[in-house]
Amino acid sequence: MSSAISTLKDHSLSKEARIQAAFRLMNDGSDESIDALVWALFNDPSPIVRHECAFALGETAASRIVPELIRSMQTDPNIFVIHEAALALGTLGDRRAEEPLRQLLAHPNSDIAESAEIALERLLS
């Protein structure tokens, strides 16, 4: 998986190449792959790549990354990344995400608030 990690971390490559690398890492699911996805979630300059990394992290079922997804949801400036981090938290089903998601229900952006609502439905079902 080191080639996928290298691709994901190489910002000179296309966004599509980095996204495809993120999906390969998601499917691998190793600690090294998950760590690379977390790194990209906070370091990739492209919101769409960060968005796809949040999605990929939710699909890994790795509950250890819940704190990182919460931090991304609370600090990323992009609505798409916030949305996907929230949904990933709902998918993971870890109750540590409940309160941070509830806080987003009052977000002034209705799309973010709706994402939190959907994530909570997933989390609590």
Question: Mind sketching the topology for me?
Answer:
Layout: H1 2-9, H2 15-28, H3 31-43, H4 47-59, H5 66-75, H6 79-92, H7 98-104, H8 110-124
Helix pairs in contact: 1-2, 1-3, 2-3, 2-4, 3-4, 4-6, 5-6, 6-8, 7-8
Low-confidence residue ranges? none
* Number of separate strands: 0
Shape: globular
Sheet of most strands: none
Order of helices and strands: HHHHHHHH
How many individual helices? 8
What fraction strand? under 5%
Q: Give the second-level CATH assignment, the architecture.
A: Alpha Horseshoe
Structurally, the number of domains stands at: 1
> CATH topology, what is it called?
Leucine-rich Repeat Variant
Structural class: mainly alpha
Q: State the helical fraction.
A: over 70%
Give structural notes.
With 125 residues, this protein is mainly α. It has one domain (2-124): Leucine-rich Repeat Variant, CATH 1.25.10. It has 8 helices and no strands. The protein has helices spanning 2-9, 15-28, 31-43, 47-59, 66-75, 79-92, 98-104, 110-124. Helix 5 (66-75) packs antiparallel against helix 6 and helix 7 (98-104) packs antiparallel against helix 8 (110-124). It is globular, with a radius of gyration of 14 Å.
